Structures are given as structure tokens and as C-alpha cells.
Amino acid sequence: MNDFTFASPTRFVFGRGVCDRAGAELAAAGHARALVVYGQGSVVRTGTLGRVLASLDAAGVAYDQFGGARPNPSVAHVREGVAAARACGADVILAVGGGSTIDTAKAISLGVPYEGDVWDLFSKKAAPVTEGKPAVASVLTIPAAGSEASDSCVISNDELCLKRGLSCEANRPELALMDPELTFTLPAYQTAAGVTDMCAHVMERYFSSVGPVSVTDNIACGLIRSLMEEAPRALADPEDYDARANIMWAGMLAHNGIAGVGRNVRPDARAGGWESHGLEHELSAHDARIAHGAGLAVIFPAWMRYVWREHPDRFLSFGRDVFGIEPVDAERDGVDVTAEEAVADAVAATIDELQAFFVSLGMPRTLGELGVTAEMIPALLETLEQNKGAEFGEFRRLTMDDARAIYESAL
Ligand code: NZQ
Ligand code: ZN
């Protein structure tokens, strides 16, 4: 187990009806004025926004509203939010929504104390300023991105066709209100994309170059097994509270860092090389209609098939712990295969099972199903290189030729 630093400072308030406590929780934390950020209207239609605003009124927390965060949120919208937060003097940015809304809130919070253009922070031209930075809190309505406790914030710049993440401890929200009942209204596709994203957050950390870390690996595989049990239940009955609750908590555990401790190569680094996220972010940067989780459902298995030979043991332990897959033994099982063939078969079966799970949830198998064609690949590679450099990744270093091969294999 490698040395690590881990902090998860967010206060979690979990259960039925907790969104009605938003005002009391913020007031108790000393906040007097909130900018309430939301998305494209689901929280208006479901009544969640009204409940949150009523709780702010009841607790004497003043607020302004700032709606319109789109899935794969844009920096242009964030810039407007920064102006709105400054104008109302918000001491907390309260997101009511999912990853896109929470990331918009995080970026607004980062932008408030920074004098230049907020995109500078995402292009690493400047470091985040914490003095004068409003706190971030959320009422989570879709479990998926894990932004309610994560250290990252992902924003798109449409003019530059770039989607960039900024990870820093200052991004960790102060408060997350997690009411599984709010997720009953989620469309099946969003439920499935969310579960896929959670699996990806666990797997990006599991498939690092570091050898076994028993306690962390068991947390990781346990999370995937729970998601495989609970996701079909939530899809079969969208109002299955326990299924929704388990998925919601799993989404947080998948991305607050606990599923990767000790698997990091440097004490201050996150575990894993996040190769599939890097490859996927280009898809949703070029077409914001592509849900992040749906892109991952295609990219992750394609990446796995390309790189598994680098550390086959990671795949064998994942296959054993998640799917009960063991390589055949020529002598024991009386079959005519070499040890190498047995490993390759077990790994292929593991990746097939994982992909079959994503597809069973309604996720795509190919890039074609997402509208991505071979002609688009050069443009994806161009922005990938701008974001990641000529080589990236940790499980195995990937060049742009490797990235091209992975995209092509997924068409
Ligand atoms: O915009 P509204 O109208 O609210 O509708 C949303 C949106 O269309 C809808 N929705 C949310 N809650 C609902 C609901 N519909 C019905 N009932 C509800 N209760 O669901 C759609 C998707 O919402 P979005 O916030 O985009 O989903 P998600 O949470 O998957 O967030 C995706 C974004 O997070 C980024 C992704 O790249 C993407 O931009 N990520 C952020 C991370 C982080 N900050 O740590 C890590 C992730 O790896 C990821 O990259
Ligand atoms: Zn993700």
C-alpha cells in the first residue's frame, strides 16, 4: 500500500426529505446569502427547487437564483454565474441538481475571488484562490458524477472545443444533502449512465499500475457488485427506495477517493491514470448531447481490451472478485490450453461481462450508437493532445496512435 493523503471534509445529510433542511443546515453553518444554481428545469418540474427555496426562506437565508446549467456545463454560463454571485454577495453557492449543476457551482465559487477569466484556472494559467471563495453545497438529484464530495470540477469551453477538469482540495463541497426519493423521477437512461460513471470512477482507480491493496480493492469490487445488484432493481422499479439509496451512496463512495487509497503512485496524487475519462471527455466536448456515462460505457471496455496485457493480474483479480471468473487450468480441468491462453480467455470473459452489464442497463456498445463516426476521430485526437499532451496514462502510457486505435476499435 503506497503512502497517501485523504480528506473528505463534506458533511453528508442523507435520507427522505433532507432537501427541506437545506436552509437550516446552511444557517447553522453560518451562511446568510446563497446563490442557488440549478439545471435546465427538472428541479422546477419535480418541485425540488420550490422545497429548497422554502427552506431557505424559513431559515432566513437570503438567496438569488441562477438556472440553466446544461449537461456538460459551459464556461460561458459559469462566467454569468460568477457575475451573479458577486452581484448578490453570496457566501455559499448551493447547487440543486447533478454533476453538471454542482460543477457549475464549483466553478462559480472558484471564479468569484479570481480577478481574471475563470477559464484561466482550467487552462492552468492561474492557481485557484481560496481567500474570499464562497462555500459550495448541494442538494443532489442524480447520483452519477460524485461531484457532491469530489475534488474535481469539469467544464467545457465550446469556442475551443475543450472539456477540462480541475482537481484541487478547494473543490470539495462543504455540505451534501442526499435524498434518494429525489431520484425517483430520473429517466432510465440517466440512471444507467450514472451507474456506469460510478463503476468507471471505481475502475479508473482499481486499474492503476500499483499492485494489490486488499482493503481498497475489496471496497472497489464491493461497490461494483452492489451497483450490479441495485441498478436493475432501480430500473425495474424507479421508486424502489433502497435501490435508489444504495446507488446514491455508492456514487459518493466511488469518487470521494476512498476507493483508491494506497493505489496512488505519489502521496499527493489521485489513484489511477484516468485514461478512459480522458478519452471520453473528448466525446462529450465535441457533442454535448453525449452523456458522460454513456460515453464511458463504450470507451472503458475498449480501453481495457487494448491495455490489459500490461498488468493482467489486475484483470484476473477483478474478474474473480466481481464476476467469479477463474482462468481454466489445463491439468485440473483436462483442457488443452496454454497458461497464456487461459489468462487471455479469463480477461476477455471479464471485459465481456462488464460490457454486457452496461448494455443490459441500456447503455451503448459502440461509438456509432452515440453518433461518433470515423471521420470525427482526428478532431477528437487534436483536442485530446491539447488536454493530455502527446502521451498520457499510467496503467499503460498511451500515445495519440494508441488513442486512435482505441477509438477505432470502439466504432
Ligand atoms: O438539467 P436538468 O433539467 O436538471 O436535467 C438533468 C440532466 O438533463 C437530469 N436530471 C437530474 N436530476 C434529475 C433529472 N431528471 C429527472 N429527475 C431528476 N431527479 O439529468 C440530466 C443529467 O444531469 P447531469 O448533471 O448532467 O448528470 P451527471 O450528474 O451525470 O453529471 C455529468 C457531468 O459531470 C461531469 C461530467 O463530465 C459531466 O459534465 N463529471 C464531473 C465529475 C466531478 N465533478 O467530480 C466527475 C465525473 O467523472 C464527470 O466527469
Ligand atoms: Zn466520470
UniProtKB/TrEMBL annotation:
Coiled coil regions, renumbered to chain: none
Pfam families for the chain: ADH_Fe_C, Fe-ADH
UniProtKB keywords: Oxidoreductase
Gene3D superfamilies listed in its UniProt record: 3.40.50.1970, Dehydroquinate synthase-like - alpha domain
Domain Alcohol dehydrogenase iron-type/glycerol dehydrogenase GldA, residue spans: 9-180
Name of protein: Iron-containing alcohol dehydrogenase
Domain Fe-containing alcohol dehydrogenase-like C-terminal: 191-410
Family annotation (InterPro entries): ADH_Fe/GldA (IPR001670), ADH_Fe_C (IPR056798), BDH-like (IPR044731)
Superkingdom to which the source organism belongs: Bacteria
